[in-house]
Design brief:
The protein is of the alpha/beta class. It folds into three domains: 4-144, P-loop containing nucleotide triphosphate hydrolases (Rossmann fold), CATH 3.40.50.300; 150-204, Methyl-cpg-binding Protein 2, Chain A; 305-441, Trna Endonuclease, Chain: A, domain 1 (3-Layer(aba) Sandwich). It has 16 helices and 16 strands.
Length: 441
């Protein structure tokens, strides 16, 4: 168990939970394993204690624990019923609840039978399947949790960003660790791009061997518990080949930001000899590949991004893209080396846009692409991502699609090397690291 003094703040997520406190809505926290869901429950419990809620009104159960491994829906109901304090509101916290068969029956009964406030975590999107949403009649809210942002990575690793004077008298940002050592922002950002944002990295330190062990554990747990075991519990057994699953993971990790389809994936796996195993040969059907990809999406290991026709204002069915939930996991899979850094920073931008509450699509305009069309409420942004804007050829490539868009929404290029110009005909050129640090820009 994580002791309270070791808890690190995840304020954005905690504020969302607090916003729904004491409502009948079931709070469901979803996200990949080890991204911080259990710690978020503990942060909420700490908030309740600080608000004066006594311990006997708070019940916490972690279904990864051996204590509850054989518990079914009826057993869960009885366990909670015996601990309800009559005449008092109960706060119920259920961690990795998807491991309990028919858990939704118990949750619905708690809502009907007791005065309670319910919080759930789950590491698989099946938790919020259409059947469950129907069962609860819309009385649940999903808090989608992700690994650490760059800002959180700095905080978790005890780095502080300060404004310092440069030799020419201007101001620049530098990073200081807890011992007062000074680093350039690019140095620390390179560590983020290397190790990723899994919170456990801060516990083991920025050490490659320890990071590999941590990431290997996360990968193995996702595959075994959230994919292979889940399929067995559902009785479907469509995902039976752990080797094929790993090969598809490797393919998707190697092709983040590229247009791919299930059929093209199957062809590549076959052509490259990746489907040979123990004398078996053959190409998996597009349907089989799609089942495996869906399992990876349900476990929050990869996220699929649809394409959007900007002129036609409609989503396209063809050739979406996939991004991996954590860039450190990609490095664990493919090796810790500089690899396709352009798509890697694009991956980071995609998840930062999700953190900021945007729905994100890939933009298509004529035969060209805009990396991201990001929309929330009345706000829309068109975003291009590139390593450098110093080359005239690159500027033309990145700016041309944005220039074709005729509406007045914000158009920005995020880059590690903005060059001399901060805007081009109203299109902003922003330093990527500054953008990651400043949520207001």
């Amino acid at each position: 168990m994580i002791e309270s003094h070791r808890l690190r703040n995840r304020d954005d997520y905690l504020e969302k939970l607090i916003g729904f406190q004491d409502t009948e809505i079931v709070k469901v926290i979803t996200g990949i394993r080890r991204c911080g869901k259990s710690s978020l429950l503990k942060l909420m419990i700490r908030h309740l204690h600080e608000s004066g809620i006594p311990s006997e009104q708070i019940l916490e159960m972690n279904f990864e624990s051996h204590d509850f491994r054989k518990m079914n829906s009826d057993g869960l109901y009885e366990y909670v019923r015996e601990r309800v304090v009559p005449g008092r509101r109960m706060y119920l916290f259920f961690d990795e609840l998807q491991r309990v068969d028919s858990w939704e029956d118990a949750i619905n009964s708690f809502r009907v039978d007791f005065d309670c406030d319910i919080y759930i975590t789950g590491s698989n999107a099946y938790l919020l399947s259409s059947e469950y949403s129907t069962y609860l009649s819309g009385r649940c809210v999903e808090i989608k949790m992700l690994p650490l942002s760059f800002r959180e990575f700095l905080e978790f690793n005890d780095f502080e960003v300060r404004e310092t004077k440069s030799a020419l008298g201007g101001m620049r940002r530098q990073v200081f660790d807890k011992n007062g050592e000074r680093y350039e922002l690019r140095e620390v950002f390179a560590e983020y791009m290397r190790f990723g944002g899994m919170p456990g990295i801060a516990e083991v330190g920025l050490d490659q061997e320890k990071a590999l062990a941590l990431l290997d554990g996360i990968y193995s747990t996702v595959v075994v518990r959230d994919i292979l075991e889940r399929e067995k519990r559902r009785g479907q057994r469509q995902i039976t080949d752990s080797l094929l699953l790993r090969k598809i993971v490797m393919f998707l990790a190697d092709n983040i930001g590229n247009n791919v389809s299930a059929s093209s994936m199957g062809r590549v796996l076959e052509n490259e000899g990746l489907m040979q195993d123990g004398g078996r040969r053959g190409k998996p059907s597009a349907h089989t590949v799609q089942n495996y990809v869906e399992a990876l999406l349900e476990s929050y290991f990869f996220y699929e991004v649809k394409r959007f026709d900007i002129k036609g204002k409609e989503y396209l069915r063809t050739l979406g893209k996939y991004y991996i939930v954590d860039i450190g996991l990609r490095n664990y899979l493919l090796g810790f080396r500089d690899r396709d850094s352009g798509h890697a920073i694009e991956n980071v931008v995609y998840f930062e846009l999700l953190r900021r509450g945007y729905d994100v699509a890939i933009g298509k305009i004529d035969r060209q692409e805009v990396d991201f069309v990001a929309v929330k409420a009345n706000d829309k942004k068109y975003v291009q991502v590139t390593e450098s804007m110093r080359s005239e050829d690159v500027r033309m490539r990145e700016l041309t699609p944005l220039c074709k868009i005729r509406d007045n929404y914000e158009k920005i290029v995020l880059t590690l090397e903005p060059g001399l110009d901060s805007s081009y005909d109203g299109i902003k050129s922003l330093d990527l690291i500054d953008w990651l640090l400043d949520v207001s820009i």
